[in-house]
Each structure stands twice: as C-alpha cells, then as structure tokens.
Amino acid sequence: MSIPSPVTHSESSILSDRTFFDDFASERSWEPGWFADFRKENWEKACKLASPLRDERWRFSQKSRLGFSKVTGLDSSEESISFESSDPSEGVCLRKLDKVILEEPDLLGGLQEFSGPGLGADESFHFARAFFEAGFYLKTNRDATVKEPLFIEHNPGGENLARFHLNLIELEPYSKLTLIERLSSSVGDSNGFFTNLTMIKAGEGSRIERILIQELNSQSTFHNLENFEVCADAHLSNVAVHLGSAQTRVESKGCLSGEGAEFDISSLALGRGKQLFDQRTMQHHLAPNGKSSLTFKNALLDQAKSVFSGLIKVENGAGSTNAYQSNRNLLLSDTAKADSLPGLEILANDVKCSHGATTSKIDEQELFYLLSRGIPRSTAERLIVLGFFEEVIEKIRIKDQLESVRESISNSFDT
Amino acid sequence: MSSLNINNLSASIEGKAILDNLNLDLPAGEVHAVMGPNGSGKSTLSKVLAGHPDYEVTGGSARLEGIELLGLSPDEIARMGLFLAFQYPIEVPGISIANFIRAALQARLPEGESVKAVDYYKQLYEKMDELGMDRTFTSRSLNEGFSGGEKKRCEILQMSMLEPRYCILDETDSGLDIDALREVSLGVNRMKGPERGMLVITHYQRLLEYIVPDKVHVMWEGKVVLSGDKDLALELEQRGYDWIRNEVAA
Q: Which phi-psi region, left, alpha or beta, contains residue B39 (left: φ > 0; alpha: ψ -120 to 50)?
C-alpha cells in the first residue's frame, strides 16, 4: 500500500534549473569565493524546499499566485536601484550593492549572520540570497545624525523577469537616520517578479525611521521580506504603503534584542481588482522593557483580498514587555475579503500585551452623513478610506512625502 | 413661488409606517418650526427629505422649487440645495473638518473648477469666528470626540459654508447648554434671508425663543395635525402634548 506523500513540490521554476544557476554563477565568477559558496548554498536550499500541503505560514493565502513558475530569466538592469549621492552626509556610507561586491566585498562579511524573517517565504528568501545582483548597503557611524532624509528608488522590471534586491542597513550606536524607499516598476505593464530582502540592525541607542512606498505596476508579483534587529534603547519605526502590484507577500519581523528597545511598525494597503496582500509579521521580544507596536490597515475594493497573520512572541526573560498589535480591514465591496490571524505567545511574566483585529464594511451612517453634504458616493468612499488610513499616514513625518502618499491613494480611486 | 412642498408624504422603516400623508409647505424666506412628542415622526421627516436609505417612501411627494426630491440620492438632494443639520452628527475618524467642507464645496462646482484654498480658508475662519469656534478645529477629525455643543456648532458651520436654499435643523437644541444654544441660534439667525427657507424641528419651545418662527406645525402620529403662528409653541409648552392628543381624538 502506498502512503500518499504529505508534501507537494511547487511548480518548478527556471530559477531551480541547475544549468540556469550555473550560467548565472559563471557570469559572476569574478566575485570572491565565499560569495559563490553563499549563493550556491542558498540556491540549493531553495531548490530542496518542500511545501507541506498544510502550511500554517501560508494559511488563507493563494500561494500559487506568489510563486516563480512564470519566470523566464533575471532582470539584470543596472538601473534598478538609484539614489542621489553615495556619501550623502558625514558619518554615513550609502553604496549600491553591486559596487560593494565589486570594490569592497568585505563590507558584506556580516551577510551570513543575517537570517530572514522566516515567516514562510523561504523560497524567495533563499532565491534572493542566491540571485541578488543589486540593492544597497547603508551604514551610519557611531553618533552620526543624518539630518536630511535619504531617498532610495527601486525600479525593477522586465516581462517575466525576476529581480532580487538585497539591502543591508546598519546603524552604529546612537546614530540617527530617516530613510525613504520608493518602489515602482521600470516598465508600465510588465509581469515582473520583485523580491526585496532587507535587513536592518539598529545598534544601541540608535534611531531609524524608514518609509517604504510601493507603487509597482498592476502585473507585478512582489515579495517584501524584512528582518529588523533593534538593540538596547534603539528605536526603529517602519511605515509601509502598499498601493501597487498584483500580489504581494510581506514578511516583517522585528527582534527586540536589547533592553528598552522600541519597535513601531505600521502598514497600509489599498487593494483593487484582484490584488492580493499577504502579510505575515512577528514582534519578537527577547529582552526586558521592550516596547513594540504594530498597526496594519487594509482597505479592499472589488475582489481584492488581504491576509494578515501576526505573532507577538515574548521570550522568558523579556519581562516588562509592552506589545501591541492591531489589524483593521475595511471592505468596500461584497466580493472583497480579509482574513486575520492575530496571535500571542508569552513565556515571560509581568508583560502587557494586547491585540485586536477587525474587519468591517463601510459604515452606512458615516456614508450617509458625507452624502448628505452633497459629496458624491465615490468621493465619500475615497474620503472614508483616507480617513481610515490616516492613523498610518500621519506617521510619515516628512510633509511632502505625506502629501504625496495621500494624493496617490486619492488618485488610485480615479483609475 | 419658491418653496419646499411636502404633499401627502408617507414613509416607513422596516415595514413600520412612520409618516402618514404628511403635508407641509415651507416658502422661501420663512422659518417654520415642527414640534411634536417623541415618536411623532419629526426626525423621520428630516431623514426622508434628505434621502436616508433606511426609510422607504410609500407615497406622496416632496418638491424643492418644483423638482421632486423623493427617489434622488442623498448627495443629489444636497446639491439641489437642501441641508440637514443632524440631531446626532456622525463621527468620522481621520477626515478633518476643513477637508470635509472643502470636498462638499468642491462637489458643487462645475467639472474642471476647484475651490481656491486662500479664499476658502478666509471664509472658513470668518464663519468659525462668528460661531466662537477655535481655529484648531479645522484639523480635527470630523465630530470625533466633540462635545454635544461642538458637534452642533460644526453642523451650523457646515450649513453656513454651503449656503443651502432650504435648511432642516433636526433637534439642534438637544444636548446644548444655554450658552451653546444662544451661539448656535445666532448662527442660524444669521442665515435667515428672503431666499432661504428653514425648518426647525424641536421638542421644546425653548429654542424658539432664539429662533423665532413664522409658523409652527405640530406633528402627531406621522402627520401635521395643527399649524399656527409662534404663539402655538407657547401654548404647547403650557398645555403639554396631552392637549394635542385630546384635540386629535376630538
């Protein structure tokens, strides 16, 4: 009697083809040996991954939409990342990753230590580490305060092409930084696959505000994988705005590794058509007196879908933790759908943790109130959605960025 | 003559009849009060005229300057010039008062034109000063966390910015202390004019000491059963609504 296999293999992708990988590796034979090993090791891991039929980490998602089976090659454009200046201010070093690989590969020595968010998208994580060709490296010196925000643009593209960006951000103790990343497709209607793997280490007493604005084209598949480490007394704030893509998988993990660390993460996503936003988060408290706060808001029109799964995990020894998690979903059509899986795992005493998830339709009384002032229904819905998102938008403390986000949200109702 | 004509209006909610062949004429330039006990259908009348989707119109008509309102969407009715000041203004998180009123004004402009920010704020601040509202209100979320008095002032502010032809004030006096009542009434009185009709719905005569009506209508079980001049309000106050009950029964 044969026993049915408990695993299936995802549809094969050219990325798992040995010849394809070998060709890629041989083109990059100029890289240091440890680099080649790193790529190969990750490629093998990606290829060996089994996907269990029931994987909690993909619950309620549409995993098949987020795979790489349609990829026909890599987008190797040199223009996929850009910023104004490589040494934007004293005490800060900003480099394109391809330059670093070529000129100062030793800066990337810490690469292996960084793990991914590990919340389910292992395939794209390992592919990113195997195939990355671009991204950025950003480091602040101890005590450096970067007064002006840094802007970085990601412009992946190419029909059926995959692009992997790897971004390393390290803040030395007591440095301060504001970072704005904008993601938009280089080609208007190409079916591109973009994976953005970011690792941020906020050293002791440092402070970083990061804003990520995603306006990829409506055909794109996007994986946004983030791993944040927040050291003692450091403060990391991350605001994400997701307006584009056909399907997006977000994995954000914050590790509060030092005493008194603060981690504040918020996100808004506006879904239209058949857009999918699949969001997995973890607030991982490893040290005492940490504070984390998460606010994820999704507004969904048409047949858009969101999945939020978030875990607050408080390890034994992380006493006096204060952790908060909130997921709010607003449905603007009967065919939109939101699933929410909040979770708590607490192994320490004396902690304050709360979480809440709500999914609701537009409030008819609110709508009537707006209509009764002569505001047409479409404008009223737009105002209600903007109002719903305001809690996240107002965390963007750079005025022109805040206005442009409001405008982008508003404009996306016109198309 | 310009007017708001309500003829044999009947309406129900969830199958329960509330308005029953109600008749009322409000000519432009006049202020009429509608009084009546709780449950007589006063608030229903205001909501039906404003096009609230929960109510079903089962008969009759309501014409604004000769044009039928019933069956139009609430935003169309508002743009035709009818304004309803809510008894319980709705809290809308995340939308500032300034943006809200601006969107309402914008909706009244022809396509391609837009509200000019400088003129808009000048006018908004003037009206706020008149109503004794702090300017920080403009950036606050609409009605969110407002006191009863603040909410009602905000309604009058919207009304004065939008300059409707016909105003319905639904129990604007409820929840107001005497100072707020005076300020709100002054705001309403400033809007009186030969071109504008006002329907003041109230349970108590108190409001009518500040906003003096040209006519008073008394509602009972979904219809207007008695109309008179402003003295009718005083009489009602003295004799109570039981008096109407007996009149209707007689």
A: left
- What is the ipTM, given to two decimal places? 0.96
Give the angle subtended at the CA of A305 by the CAs of A304 and A307, to the nearest 5°.
160
The number of domains in chain A is 2
* pLDDT for res B154: 95
Report the pLDDT averaged over residues B55-81. 97
Residue A413: predicted pLDDT: 83
Q: Are A164 and A133 in contact (CB under 8 A)?
A: yes
Q: Are residues A311 and A377 in the same domain?
A: no
Do A293 and A393 have their domain in common?
A: no
- Is a pLDDT exceeding 80 seen at residue A320? yes
Q: Does B74 touch chain A (CB under 8 A)?
A: yes
Classify domain B3-89+163-249 at the CATH class level.
alpha beta
Find out whether B191 and B104 touch, Cβ atoms under 8 Å: no
Question: Looking at beta carbons, which residues of chain B come within 8 Å of A366?
Answer: 90, 92
The range of the structural domain enclosing residue A384 comes to 362-415
- For residues B29-35, give the mean pLDDT: 96
Identify the band that residue A291 occupies on the pLDDT scale cut at 50, 70 and 90. very high
Q: Indicate whether A38 belongs to any domain.
A: yes
Percent of chain A with pLDDT over 90: 82
Number of A–B residue contacts, CB under 8 Å: 82
| CA–CA separation, A158 and A260 (whole Å) | 44
Residue B63 · residue B69 · CB < 8 Å: yes
Q: In B, which residues are within 8 Å of A373 by CB distance?
A: 75, 78, 83, 100-101, 103-104, 107, 158, 162
Q: Which of A324, A341, A361 is the last residue of a domain?
A: A361
Closest CA to B137 of A230, B148, B146: B146
Is A373–B94 a contact, with Cβ atoms under 8 angstroms apart? no
Question: For chain A, how big is the Rg over CA atoms in Å?
Answer: 21
Question: How many Cβ atoms sit within 10 Å of the Cβ of residue A21?
Answer: 21
> pTM for the complete prediction?
0.92
Collapse the DSSP code of A186 into the 3-class scheme (helix H, G, I; strand E, B; otherwise coil) and give the result: coil
State whether B74 and A372 contact (CB < 8 Å). yes
Q: Of A42-56, A134-148, A377-391, B221-235, where does mean pLDDT reach its minimum? A: A42-56
Number of neighbouring beta carbons within 10 Å of residue A277: 25
**CB-CB contact of A252 with A265 (8 Å):** yes
Are residues A236 and A176 part of one domain?
A: yes
Q: Examine the domain organization and report whether A235 and A377 are in the same domain.
A: no
Query: Which are the contacts of A114, defined by CB distance < 8 A and separation ≥ 6?
Result: A168, A199, A227
